[in-house]
Protein: Glucanase
Amino acid sequence: MALLAVVVAAPAAQAASPVGMTDGFYVDPDSNPAVWVREHAGDGRQAAIKANISTKPIARWFGNWSGDIKTSVSGYVNKTGTKLPVLVAYNIPGRDACGGHSGGGAGTPAAYRAWISAFAAGIGSRPAVVVIEPDSLADFNCMDSAKIAERTAMIKYATEQFKAKAPNTWAYLDAGNAQWVPADTMAGRLDAAGVRNVRGFSINVSNYHTTAVSTAYGNAVNGSFSGFTKPYVIDTSRNGNGHNGEWCNPGGRKLGTPARTGGGAEMLLWVKVPGDSDGRCGKAPGVDAGKFDPQLAFDLIYGY
Structure:
């Protein structure tokens, strides 16, 4: 009697963990605070900013100021060696539509699709962490249904591009912060925008809520998904003293836990660059959004 050969299919290969492929987070020598430190050796604030901010791992933000995006992203991740880079994609059309301080972005949905596709291709197979479009899924309150649908489709396209072109990247869709959008509403927005295609979601980017408050929100979002959960990361760059009800360069805030894995979330990251202004407001009325102000940085060190 002939023997029947039984063939057992091997499981599909899984993409490697970018954390496992690297040995710690990358410290950007050309971050805004690092450049300021190099250029201001005689400033009385320089030593404190160097010790507490510029030598820490901080995300690099990419947008319409970055030139050819594939070249810019590829150049950045190629120089990080054995360290893990954290990048932020920040170019959605109508960016900061309701807040107004960080406006801009790609001119059209088609332009955005080309840009984000090139972003993912620029990373390629290298290990990376990417936060996709901070505030974009929370900032709906001044948008009509057509604009919301258009934005959701663009973000979903972004998730598809990272899944297809950056297999060793952990990408996170941004979920706003703990007091912006109810967790069940945000869960629906994340799912519609393709969170199942990527690693997970990010919380508290450029905001001040404590890690404990943000963790509770992340868990609530996960509890609102239908049939799945996702890892999340928390921006701890400025949450050491928590949130005081203001979001635009408020006083009395403080640096939080530096970048690490774990800590209540999958990772704690410095996504917002400490010392970069939120806009012409609060303690820095003359400093544009994204521009480094040494006094803002210095005050975050001491909680002033």
About this structure: The longest strand covers residues 169-174.
